[in-house]
Design goal:
Length: 241
């Protein structure tokens, strides 16, 4: 969206995250708010890109990964037999959120939310919540963030670590194939898995045992050094969330 049009848009509608989250809180009531949600999803949240490229991939027979879906994509997932959606981005300040919640409800798909960050490590409580989700939801499931590149990569990796303790398949989910740039600031997510492989695996610990006994997100983050060019491409060129 051109900068001038973006400024006018933000003057006409709520601009603070808290105000936007309240404004777009589902259900969408009235045609004006619904129309605004669609415009916001396609223009402000870059949904026009995801209309063409969904970054949708099969992880295994029970799990898929994706970017933020549009309503018609949620309906397609229903036809594929998907039972649960796990939203890792939050995104409640965008029109994408109520439209996804509504589409999931209409399709009879359970909707779960657990907000993770693409440039910061999850804490123990977040990992335990994800463990509970992965062990309790109905499958097949789709796990997604905004672009399907970083948090979806982390979520798919954690699926293999938490349920299967398979770090090789976990690391295979965190690659450029999915748009994940390891050398950028989002590479701190890779550093977490690699630290487990280095410290936890030789001790015979499962991933969650290591999380509870030896995981130090502050130390991992402090030791990680992103590459300037990769970070510029991910943050400035791609505008990753």
């Amino acid at each position: 969206m051109p900068p001038t049009l973006k400024r006018l848009y933000r003057r006409a509608f709520p601009s603070r995250v808290e105000e936007r989250s309240a404004y777009f809180k589902p259900p969408l009531i009235g045609w004006r708010r619904r129309l605004h949600a669609w415009f916001d999803m396609l223009a402000m949240d870059h949904g026009f890109i995801r209309y063409v490229y969904t970054n949708f991939h099969k992880v295994d027979d029970k799990l898929y990964r994706s970017s933020q879906p549009l309503p018609h994509q949620v309906r397609k997932w229903q036809r594929m037999g998907v039972k649960t959606i796990i939203n890792l981005r939050g995104g409640m300040q965008y029109g994408s959120y109520p439209l996804e919640v509504e589409a999931a409800e209409q399709a009879g798909i359970a909707f779960e939310g657990l907000q993770l960050r693409s440039r910061a490590l999850p804490d123990v409580a977040q990992l335990e919540k994800l463990e509970t989700l992965l062990k309790s939801i109905a499958y097949p499931a789709v796990i997604h963030c905004k672009a399907g590149a970083d948090r979806a990569s982390l979520g798919s990796a954690l699926y293999f670590l938490i349920l299967h303790n398979d770090y090789e398949r976990a690391l295979s989910q965190m690659t450029l194939r999915y748009g994940h740039i390891k050398g950028s600031k989002t590479g701190v997510l890779d550093a977490m898995v690699e630290t487990y492989v280095r410290d936890g695996v030789p001790q015979g610990q499962t991933f969650m045992q290591w999380v509870r006994d030896g995981y130090d997100p502050q130390a991992i983050a402090a030791a990680f050094k992103p590459k300037m060019l990769s970070s510029f491409f991910g943050d400035t060129v791609l505008h990753r969330e």
